[in-house]
Design goal:
The chain is an alpha+beta fold and 756 residues long. It contains 21 helices and 20 strands. It starts with a helix and ends with a helix.
Length: 756
């Protein structure tokens, strides 16, 4: 074996360019999987540590007021172990362009404790002190000891001094309002003040309005609705509270991404290993014959060639494992601006080690399998020039147009049919590359399409005006009122959804799957909600909005293809006809409506421009673009390596054929055309298969980003599809160029001679 080991390392050194593709595939397989695993594992660990250490609540309930009697009944609910009530109010920061702050009352309890980033904790009976969240403080350049002037919705103004800067586990992904899909730290923040400050200084006289609890079950909606009655507003758990759920969902999104892409890379790594060893054996037939003649057994020869897979695949896998932390850190850094977590980690688990072992094992087995034919052939056959190919008629020869093809094309088609394994490998390589590129180009387009559809088609307003008392807003001739209420639907998917009641107007424009607008003939359900709750057109849907004791049942008139605001839409006329009260809090207006023409401006609490919503949504897309570009880069690299590898194998296997045809008088240009024809056929079939596979893969990829609040739809336009196709075809046809150069350099004497 000592002699074979010397040969092994000599062959690797001599043919390192051939083995580089195998090394690269093994490297990428581990790099992608471990790189993304370190990111999702690290994010999961970071979240788990934060959530566990700070004892994040299992659920939250918003209400207009919570009495002591309500609290006692809630504490007696089976499965609930801890309950805390507190106050939550929204105020304006007058020092920072009326930016919004959500203030909670400080209570010395054990649920959802915040972490102090800087400064001192808030005293329970402190006066005019505030704990401010880290991101808002940094975005607005606040520090310990600074003051801010705030105004409540009921008109009270007070100045507060920052005593500490904090991060809360229940505000990990804080957007401040459901109108934005990504955080806007400069405009929306949160903080804590003492109950004494809230009541004595801010003059808040109501009862507590927020319940947080620890419980064994996920869904206590029925119990809370029964206890709170008309005071009940909405119920959330860790999977439905957007401030927490988005972070937890992101773990699953990156995790699914790692499995999806790693599966493709590993599959093609096997292909690369198999084809490379086949190519090596084709060039070493006489060496194998000599080894057999010297007494080396078939098993030892097989182990020798399996060693190529072990060493090349193993070195690629190990280097991928060493490099993976760089990818993990890169991906995590793209998430840090989105999530508020005190400590970030990169974390791996045992599956990374299992994958490394699997890649090395599968590379070794692939190499051993590729040497099967060499081990089965007698030395005399190799020494006489190799095994003869079995030639036979193919099915295509029976078609009338067969003889009309020129000799080169007939020869190429016959060769494709006879060498089916090589042909299928080429098809798989092209299809795999097309699939990855379709997903790489399609994912950012899918998200951008959602943004464009939501803010250019579904909604066409210019500004959203928020007011707690719509009756004070008058002299509006060109506006559309919208009421958004959390509601309990039956059937549902286990979550409270939005009931959206709209008045007449032309700023809410979403349509159903059959292109029908919202009318007075029933309730309209968004597609994401309908799919999860298994609701179909024509079904009956029961609705019980918050602050309402009565349930109402409507016929589902259509399924709306809207990706945002997952819930149900109904017109004002139908809602009021059923006995419901129309109490909107949002007014949509267009560009031609001036605020100066609106009476009752003093009752407006917030104005949001659609341009700001678009900008915020595109910032969310930009936060993910680096990941998408990374995937596109890997996909392009994959296509280049696989197709070049297969092209080289094609040349090596057929070098004697090319030399024979040259002796028979065929020009080099004719041989290149034959190669190009075969390449075009292989690429075309792989490309055709890759397009539907790409759409399927993109759809699976997009689903990993869908949540209960946003429903992403796979979309790739002709331009990006053409770009992905261009990359595949360019890489494929370029192999013809390289093979053509090698055909011109064929030494016919060396290629055709049998015995040295």
């Amino acid at each position: 074996m000592k002699f074979l080991n010397k040969k092994l390392f000599r062959d690797i050194k001599r043919n390192w360019t051939q083995f580089f593709s195998v090394f690269l595939m093994a490297f990428l397989s581990i790099l992608v999987f471990m790189g993304l695993q370190g990111a999702w594992g690290g994010l999961s660990k970071s979240l788990t540590n934060f959530i566990t250490t700070n004892n994040l609540a299992d659920g939250w309930v918003l209400a207009t007021s919570v009495t002591e009697e309500n609290q006692k009944k809630i504490e007696n609910i089976d499965g609930i172990t801890e309950v805390n009530t507190k106050f939550r109010v929204n105020v304006k920061n007058l020092d920072k362009d009326n930016s919004s702050l959500s203030l909670d009352s400080y209570s010395d309890n054990n649920i959802s404790k915040y972490s102090i980033f800087k400064g001192e904790n808030l005293k329970q009976h402190g006066t005019k002190d505030i704990l401010l969240n880290k991101e808002y403080a940094e975005a607005n350049h606040y520090n310990i000891g600074d003051s801010l002037l705030i105004e409540s919705d009921w008109g009270t103004e007070i100045s507060l001094t920052i005593s500490g800067i904090i991060q809360s586990p229940e505000r990990i992904y804080y957007t401040g309002t459901q109108e934005f899909i990504a955080p806007k730290y400069k405009e929306y923040g949160y903080g804590y003040i003492s109950e004494e400050t809230l009541k004595n200084e801010l003059k808040y006289m109501s009862s507590p309005n927020l319940i947080e609890f620890k419980g064994k079950e996920i869904d206590y909606r029925e119990e809370f609705e029964n206890i709170l009655g008309t005071s009940y507003i909405s119920y959330f758990n860790q999977h439905t509270l957007n401030d927490v759920a988005t972070a937890l969902d992101r773990v699953g999104q990156i995790k699914n991404l790692s499995y999806l892409f790693s599966f493709i890379f590993i599959l093609l790594a096997i292909l690369a290993m198999y084809t490379t060893i086949r190519r090596l054996i084709e060039t070493q037939t006489k060496e194998i014959a000599v080894l057999k003649a010297l007494g080396f057994s078939n098993f030892k020869i097989g182990i020798h060639y399996a060693s190529f897979g072990f060493i090349i695949g193993g070195s690629g896998a190990l280097l991928g494992a060493i490099t993976a932390p760089l990818i993990s850190s890169f991906v995590l850094n793209t998430q840090k601006d989105m999530f508020s977590i005190p400590h970030w980690y990169v974390s791996y688990n045992y599956s990374s080690l299992l994958l490394i072992v699997f890649v090395i094992l599968i590379s070794t087995i692939s190499a051993f399998s590729a040497s099967h034919q060499a081990r089965a052939v007698l030395p005399s056959e190799f020494l006489s020039g190799g095994t003869a190919k079995k030639m036979r008629h193919i099915l295509l020869e029976k078609f009338p147009g067969w003889k009309k093809l020129n000799f080169g094309n007939r020869w190429a088609l016959r060769d494709i049919t006879i060498n089916r394994a090589r042909f299928f490998m080429g098809v798989i390589g092209v299809a795999g590359g097309m699939m990855l590129l379709t997903a790489g180009f399609g994912m950012p387009e899918s998200i951008r399409t959602l943004v464009s559809k939501a803010y250019n088609e579904d909604f066409s307003y210019d500004r959203r005006i928020h007011t707690p008392d719509y009756q004070k807003i008058t002299t509006i001739s060109d506006g559309q009122w919208v009421q958004l209420s959390p509601a309990h639907f039956k059937p549902d998917d286990g979550y409270n959804r939005l009931l959206i009641v709209i008045s007449d107007g032309h700023y809410v424009n979403m349509t159903t799957e059959d292109n029908k607008k919202i009318e007075d003939d029933g309730i309209y359900v968004t597609k994401g909600f309908a799919d999860r709750a298994k609701i179909k057109r024509g079904d009956s849907l029961t609705v019980k909005p918050s602050l309402d004791t009565q349930s109402r049942t409507f016929n589902v008139a259509g399924i709306i293809t809207s990706e945002t605001n997952q819930g149900a839409y109904i017109t004002q006329r139908l809602w009021e006809k059923s006995g419901g009260k129309f109490i909107p809090t949002t007014l949509l207006i267009g560009k031609n409506t001036s605020l100066s023409t609106i009476d009752g401006l003093h009752s407006i609490t917030k104005i949001i421009e659609i341009s700001d919503q678009k900008k915020n949504a595109y910032e969310f897309v930009d936060s993910l673009m680096s990941i998408f570009f990374m995937i596109i880069g890997f996909a392009v690299l994959l296509v280049v390596v696989i197709l070049y590898n297969l092209g080289s194998l094609n040349f090596v296997e057929r070098m004697r054929d090319f030399a024979t045809l040259r002796v028979l008088g065929f020009k080099k240009s004719t041989l290149i055309n034959i190669t190009m024809y075969e390449n075009i056929v292989t690429t075309f079939i792989g490309w055709l298969i890759g397009i539907p596979l790409g759409f399927w893969f993109l759809n699976q990829y997009v689903k990993t980003f869908s949540t209960i609040h946003l429903e992403y739809t796979a979309h790739i336009g002709l331009l990006n599809l053409a770009l992905a196709s261009l990359v595949v075809w360019t890489c494929s046809l370029s192999t013809t160029f390289f093979i053509g150069r090698r055909i011109r350099k064929i030494n016919m004497v060396s290629a055709l001679k049998s015995i040295e």
